[in-house]
Amino acid sequence: MAASLQVRVITPEKVVFEGSCTQVQYPGEDGLYGVLANHAPMVTTVDAGVITLKQADGSEEHLFVSSGFAQVARNELRFAVNSGELEGEIDMERAERAATRARERIAQSKQSAIDSIRAQASLRRALMRMRAKRRRS
Known about the structure:
Blueprint: E1 5-10, E2 15-21, E3 23-28, E4 31-36, E5 42-46, E6 49-54, E7 60-65, E8 68-73, E9 76-81, E10 84-86, H1 92-107, H2 113-134
């Protein structure tokens, strides 16, 4: 049996996931990070995207998270993120509507640079939500 580590994903509103995993992959500023049991201590940023949690039975759980931080210490991986949703909680229609709205905002020619950056971030979050949901579909 593979060694495991304790994982906790929290937002300001709730605990999104808490459990034991053999492997975790998550998006960071420098690309994807992978964490196994007994990983060296570290703190990193977390980018909006999909966290993949591999459990001891070989099953995988996927969840969408927005930006935040991750900390590895004493065989525990803790995520503190602004928002997070398990793949089963993601409303595809809502995510698709958000992506459409963001694309429309990006296409507007008279918007400011700040509005463009916000619209691009909104589009990325919507697309990552859809990616998390489609992993099992």
